[in-house]
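notes to self, project folder thing:

trying the whole complex as one job this time. last attempt i did each chain seperately and stitching them together was a nightmare. two parts in total, labels are on each line so i dont mix them up again. if this works i'll redo the older ones the same way
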Amino acid sequence: MSTPLLAVENLVLTFPGEGGRIAVVDKVSLAIGRGETLALVGESGCGKSLTALAIMRLLPKPGRIEASSRIEFDGRNLLELSVPEMRSIRGGAIGMIFQEPMTSLNPVTSVGQQVLEAVLLHEKVSRRAARERVIELFQMVGIPDARTRFGAYPHQLSGGLKQRVMIATAMAMRPRLLIADEPTTALDATIRAQILELLRQLSSTTGTAVLLITHDFGVVNEIADRVAVMYAGMIVEEGTRRDLLCQPRHPYAQGLLKSIPRPEARGGRLEEIKGVVPRPGRWPPACRFAPRCPSAFDRCGAELPHRTLVSPSQGAWCHLVEYEVHA
Amino acid sequence: MTMLSADALLEVRGLQTWFPIRSGVLRRVRGAVRAVDGVDLTVYPGETLALVGESGCGKTTVGRTLLRLVEATGGNIWFGGVNLARLSRDAFRPFRQKMQIVMQDPGAALDPRLTVRDAIAEGMDAFGLGANTEERTQRVADLMRRVSLDPELMWRYPHEFSGGQRQRISIARALAVEPVLLICDEATSALDVSIQAQILNLLGELKAERKLTYLFITHDLGVVRYFADRVAVMYLGRIVELGRTERVFAEPAHPYTKALLASIPSLDPARRGVKPMALGDVPSPIHPPSGCHFHPRCAQRLATCSRYDPPVVPLRDGMSRCVLTPDAGDNQPDRADITMAAASPKPYSAEVTAEQRP
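result (full assembly):
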């Protein structure tokens, strides 16, 4: 396998808590190949968004990336870069879009102007050329009337159009990696379908790799190539889209998929995952899912599971899977 | 559809809720947001009727208008033979007890200064249920146990609970006054999927135990398909399609329903690629498009769609508000069919499973 575009190794993120620093993301490793879309899936508080922020080195204070962590992007360790170097990567080689386009846009500047500034920040071109580039980007992301919409203010645009503006900004510098944190969660169904189609089309035409942060397996199925499932700060299973959707092996990934209301379940009960997600700092010592796991046995409460390869493309961090595979 | 049926729990006819738009120094009324603009809806006892639509379609306002949390601008609401729209606030009170609501954000719906015990007992106090404080506290404990919360925690405050636990508190609070109709307004939308499953299971159990009727307001079509007996699809203040859940999902009649269903991402790796069938954006309800509200986004629109209000075409199990829906003359709504679906969703589940198999 050629070197991945992004390789995160042993990422540990801590926040201060009662009695010292508490890890909220614990020894997370993941890799994204060029042009590949990796979905990082999990429920609220699992650490998926913090992982994305850490890659951008935007982890909010007092959060800290611990020294053992490595984040290698295109052959450079992002954690060793100076602040100006990192700034030129952010919005340059790595683009970002977030769930709430409204909070990412400046309400008192026209949207065209905001994207224009992003272009001028990274490229030495005339204002006129930059303006044409912005209009071209607006057309690329499917903003109707791109020329007139250049002067529109964020409040004059719908949620779907604002998200298109954000995508235009993120794509302005032809990034090699796009980090998309719940990009369609705040959108209505018909608009979400439009944005999903746009993201799929952009990544295939531009060859941009995507790190997609989501809680929605439907969105995963739409645009991901590979999937990593997170629970309580750790990755519990990873594999291709097909692996995870058809044959998840980790009991948490299985439970998550089964708890989605499907038409086949009509008239019957949904499978639940018992209990609640433990808060950081109250995580069980060994397998974090053990107290809620229907198949847990004594070893699960005593020892942290390692990755077991189920197939060349799929791995699960689970003692039960280890027994099943090596039996 | 104007005839009232004797077996209905709730009949809504021509409901309108407009919000005035004021501007200028004198705050003169310049126009109105027609959040709900002529809604007809019948809810049968024991059924789960889903009201679905995208943000701003007016689905939440329908629920709030039924509870008189906002006042209707026009129309009638019949509940057990009484027209609620004509009642004074005092005369409405006993009906308010019969209709309770569970909202999306249990963090915002619960008063942070009330203990869980007081939050759940508040309605009992207001409607004079339970002989004395001890009895009410006992009932709070029973309710908490029923929604799988430890009664020991009743003296704690809402912020000490997780989102899913708070939603359980909201449900216990609504049930405390023994309602017959529970309006669930995006009740599971803010929850993680594993917690959502717990709450949907709980709502299903409670419905069977207490013979509840649900008006389930949501944007989540997956939840609707799993949970609802019938579904009403709203678009910009109007209901555009209504029918049995299985039929609506299998053979949607209205182009908007078709677009909405086509936008649901599948979980089947072999089926990828949602089709964005609705063009452009949802228009503002302040200036809804003329004629059929959906026409600017409709791929099948005719020249006349922008000029005339679409006809309400009756279907066997409901209606579709579209000129393209074929109007078979003998296609009169079959009440027996609808009420049977409402009373017993079970017979249909086997049929759905069969349809789903490839």
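what i see at first glance: The radius of gyration of chain B is 21 Å.
need to look closer tmrw
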